[in-house]
Specification:
The protein has 103 residues and is mainly beta. The chain has one domain. A hairpin with a 2-residue loop joins strand 6 and strand 7. The relative contact order is 0.32. The model has no long low-confidence stretch (mean pLDDT 94).
Length: 103
């Protein structure tokens, strides 16, 4: 699974996990198993507002873009995230929501 991230200022962090062709976003499961090879599922056909583009199956692999929420003090790696390649199941490591400031 190939995931591109689109940084957006939001008040809710993102929790992401994968199980096969199912992506769970903040507790809501999105199962893309039925998406055939070469097909594209448009963004507006997917419920929720975490998807920032279509979902495609290319070479047997899912390709998608997700909104990456961040706080007011987000670090560089969150504002300019690298794409993520998932090869296994489980929780997905994401860039930090924001940097904690000390007083």
């Amino acid at each position: 699974m190939q995931i591109k991230l689109s940084p957006q200022r939001r008040d809710m962090p993102l929790e992401l996990s994968r199980s096969g062709d199912t992506l769970t976003i903040n507790g809501e499961a999105f199962d893309f198993t039925p998406l055939p090879e070469g097909a594209t599922l448009p963004q507006d056909a997917i419920t929720g507002d975490w998807f920032a583009g279509p979902v495609e199956r290319i070479g047997g692999e899912l390709h998608l873009t997700l909104a990456l929420p961040h706080g007011a003090n987000a670090p560089h790696e969150t504002l300019f995230p690298a794409p993520i390649t998932l090869t296994g199941d489980g929780p997905v490591a994401l860039p930090p929501y924001e940097v904690e400031t000390r007083l």
